[in-house]
Amino acid sequence: MAVFVDRGSGTPGVFQPGRPPPREGVGVAWEGAWVRHIDDAERRARLVSRHLLDTRAADVLTATRAVGFLHGTEPANIYLSLAARADVGRGDIDTALFEERSIVRQLAMRRTVFAFDTALFAAVRGGAAARVEAQLSARLAKEVAAGGIATDGAAWVEAVCEQVRDSLAEGPLTTAQLRERIPAMGARIEMSPGKSYGGNFPIAPRVLSVLAADGGVVRGRNAAGWKVSRPYWTAVEDWLGADPGALEPREAYAEVVRIWLDRYGPGTEDDIVWWLGATKSIVRNALGDLGAVEVSLDCGRTGWVLTDDADAVAAPGPSAALLPPLDPTAMGWKERDFLLGPHASDIFDRNGNAGATAWIGGRIVGTWAQDDAGAVVVLALDELDGGAAGLLDAEAERLSGWLDGDVVRSVYTSPYARRWLAERA
Fold first, then answer.
1. What domain range includes position 166?
2. Residue-wise pLDDT tens digits, 265-279
3. What is the DSSP string of 333-398?
C-alpha cells in the first residue's frame, strides 16, 4: 500500500475513512494536502528492477536503455556496465557501437562522454551537449588568446574547427592524422603556469572536445583495443547515415529529464541539476513541461517522479551486481545516502567519481578489484550474511569468466580497492 505524507507536518500515514484516495497515478490528493511518500527501501527497489541489477537483458540496446546513459569516460566502462546487465560479449558490444550503431557516444552532460540510444542523439545534442559546446568553445578561445596563439581566439577556434570538418568530409581520421593535415592542430598551450595541475598541453584534444560536444563530429571506429580510446573521428552524417539535427533546447532538456525521471526517479531538483550539468531554471522548466509530480523522501527533501510513476513498487527478490567505475547507477544522483550509506570515502574520490561497486539489493556494500591473474575479488565493506556473500561470489566468478584474464585498470579505482592493491604490491 502506498504511504502518503502531510506536506505541512511531514507525518506519514494512510488516508483515513472519508477522505478521498489520491488521484490514481498522480500521488497528490485532497486539496493538495498530502503527497506520496517514497522511502529509501522503495527507491532501492526501483533502482534494482529498472537498472537490471536483478536480471540481465538479452541485448546491448535493451541494457543501455535501462539506465539511459552509460558513462564512457574510460572506454572499458561501457563494456563492463553492459556486461553486468546483459548476456552479451565484447563482440556484441562492438557490433552495437561500430556496425549497427544503435548506441552512439557523445560529449554531453557535465563534459562527460556518454553512450546512449542513437534515437536520443537530437535531444542530447540540442540541450546538454550544446551547453557544454558553448562553454568549451568560449574557454578555448580565451586560452588561445592568452597563450599567444592568436589575437582573436574565437576566430581561431571557428577556423580550426571548420578545417577539421572539411578534412573529415573526406573520411574518418584519428587525432594524429588530423594533426598531420592541419598545422594549427599541432600547437601546444601553456596552462596554469606554476600550478601543480598546470603544464604544456596539446591543443588538438581541446578542439576535438568542442566538435564532439557540438555533435557534428562523433567518435567512430576505434583504432585500438576495447580499453583504449583512440577513435577515428567521423562526420555525424557519415556515421549515422544522416545528420539527426538537434531539438530546440527546452524540448531537448525536457526529453533528457524525462529519461532520467523514468530510470532514476524519484530524485531531488539538486540531483537533476547536478546530473544534467544545467541550471535550476532549466530543470524547473523541464519538470513543469513534463507535469512531474512531487513526492516526499526519507531525507526530508522533495523528490520528483513522472505523472504515471507514483504507484508503489514491490520489493524485488535477492540481487547482486558488480559494476565498474563511474557506472551510471552509482553516479546517477548527487545525494546518494539512500544507496551508499557510510561508504562514501571508500568508494568515491574527492572529486565525486565512483570507483567499482559491489551491490546487494540496490545498496552499495563494497567494491571489487582484480588480482594479478585477472580474477575478480569482492572487497566487502559491510558484514554480509552467507546468502549475500554467495550472490556476490557468483557475480565475481561470472565477471572473471567474461574478462577471461584481461585485467582492466582504472584511473577511478576506489580508494578502498587502491589500498588493497597497494598492500599486495
1. 60-240
2. 999 999 999 999 999
3. -S--HHHHTT-HHHHB-TTS-B--EEEETTEEEEEEEE-TT--EEEEESSPPPHHHHHHHHHHHHH
